């Protein structure tokens, strides 16, 4: 799961929650949260279905879909190059 950094403080979150309770009422907030959760789950399932269909289609056409190993290898090469360059500059603990 990926987290999105929020640049708001706890006091601002509390204020937003207060406004939500004032606008919708305490009895409606669980229903709204449940609806948002169901909507997010539906979007996630739809995107997973689309990904699997694209992958099946690519495999059917003979296209290699396992490109993550190539990307990981290139990232490792770049890391090694950076370590070689900064090795003499880096402070030793």
UniProtKB/TrEMBL annotation:
Q: Which residues cross the membrane?
A: 6-26
One family from Pfam that matches here is TatA_B_E
From the UniProt record, list the coiled-coil ranges: none
* Presence of keyword Cell membrane: yes
Q: Please report the record's description of how this protein sits within the membrane.
A: Single-pass membrane protein
GO terms of biological process kind: protein transport by the Tat complex
User: Could you tell me the superkingdom of the organism this chain comes from?
Assistant: Bacteria
Which PANTHER family does this UniProt record tie to the protein? SEC-INDEPENDENT PROTEIN TRANSLOCASE PROTEIN TATA
Similarity comment: family membership = Belongs to the TatA/E family.
Recorded protein name is: Sec-independent protein translocase protein TatA
Q: Which organism is this entry from?
A: Christiangramia lutea
Per the record, the gene is tatA
